[in-house]
From TrEMBL:
The lineage of its organism: Bacteria, Pseudomonadati, Bacteroidota, Flavobacteriia, Flavobacteriales. Its EC number is 3.1.1.32, 3.1.1.4. Homodimer; dimerization is reversible, and the dimeric form is the active one. Its cofactor is Ca(2+). It comes from Flavobacterium faecale. This is Phosphatidylcholine 1-acylhydrolase. GO terms for cellular component: cell outer membrane. One of its GO terms (molecular function) is calcium ion binding. It catalyses: a 1,2-diacyl-sn-glycero-3-phosphocholine + H2O = a 1-acyl-sn-glycero-3-phosphocholine + a fatty acid + H(+); a 1,2-diacyl-sn-glycero-3-phosphocholine + H2O = a 2-acyl-sn-glycero-3-phosphocholine + a fatty acid + H(+).
Length: 294
């Protein structure tokens, strides 16, 4: 456990130090889809360059309207009888990286990427639980992207791709949670607006630890982002095609502090903020700092 704390603090300090060294006049608030995925020839950077993928942030305080004191899943097989004494205030952080491993697949147009995202909820203010990590979600991915420039309304569909996604919390039964998906990604761009639509197919699992996850979390994601000067806003919506009453929405506001260091306010409402909470509805509010966005 002590090693986990050291690793977390080390990562946080590296990003804080690196952010403070950047000239604020050279800060790029949001990359275009071409810059993010190297779609156009002018943006090609080759392979095996490590770069940010999803937003990287640290929320010093995250408040929840509902504590999941008895995690369970709908099958009952993985039900936990433990009475977990969680605080409704904790810290949350997310780190995310990607790298291109093959450039110019399939007639020289496609690129193969690998990505990794880790999201952690840390009961750092909870002395009763020895400041333990409540939930850590691990998400490795393999992504095949193709550049496009299809006119749509006043903008363009700039990328179409497929992703093989695995997400798990690395725990043992009864609180183990995981699922595998094949995700279609469609990226649309108009002026300073980026829209990504990601419907997915959940792959069958003989030992299903969360059988109702698509009913709670959904089977598609919509991400909409824009910026005004150095202020950035992005929304992530997950919803199901089969039910209308569940899903979730996450609202994010990123604002300048100093150099590349920016503040980050986040509001979440709905189901599945973490895998262990996939069938728990809650509202959460977090405040912290942001290091990198989409």
């Amino acid at each position: 456990m002590l090693q986990q704390y050291k690793t977390t603090l080390f990562i946080f300090l590296i990003f804080t130090f690196a952010s403070a060294q950047i000239d604020p006049d050279k800060v790029i608030i949001r990359k275009t889809l071409s810059e993010a995925w190297e779609l156009d020839s002018i943006d090609k950077q080759g392979t095996f360059r490590l770069m940010s993928y999803r937003p990287i942030y640290f929320s010093a305080a995250r408040w929840s309207s509902r504590r999941n004191t008895e995690p369970f899943n709908e099958s009952g097989e993985f039900q936990s009888k433990d009475k977990n004494i969680f605080n409704n205030i904790e810290t949350k952080f997310q780190i995310s990286f990607k790298t291109k491993v093959i450039q110019g697949l399939l007639f020289g147009t496609g690129d193969l990427w690998v990505g990794y995202t880790q999201k952690a909820h840390w009961q750092v203010y909870n002395k009763t639980l020895s400041r333990a990590f409540r939930e850590v979600n691990y998400e490795p991915e393999v992504m095949l992207n193709f550049p496009t420039k299809i006119p749509l309304f006043k903008g363009h569909i700039r990328t179409v791709g497929l992703t093989l996604n695995h997400q798990s919390n690395g725990k043992d039964i009864p609180t183990s949670r995981s699922w595998n998906r094949i995700i279609l990604n469609i990226g649309y761009e108009y002026k300073n607006w980026n829209i990504n639509f990601r419907p997915w197919y959940r792959m069958p699992d003989d030992e299903d630890e969360n059988p109702g996850i698509t009913r709670s979390v959904g089977d598609a994601e919509l991400e909409v982002a824009t910026h005004f000067g150095k202020h950035e806003f992005y929304t992530i919506i997950n919803h199901s095609f089969s039910t209308l009453e569940k899903g979730n929405i996450q609202l994010n506001y990123v604002f300048p502090i100093h150099g590349h260091l920016r503040g980050h306010a986040q509001v979440f409402q709905g189901y599945g903020e973490t895998l262990i909470d996939y069938n728990i509805q809650q509202t959460t509010i977090g405040i912290g700092v942001s290091f990198a966005n989409w």
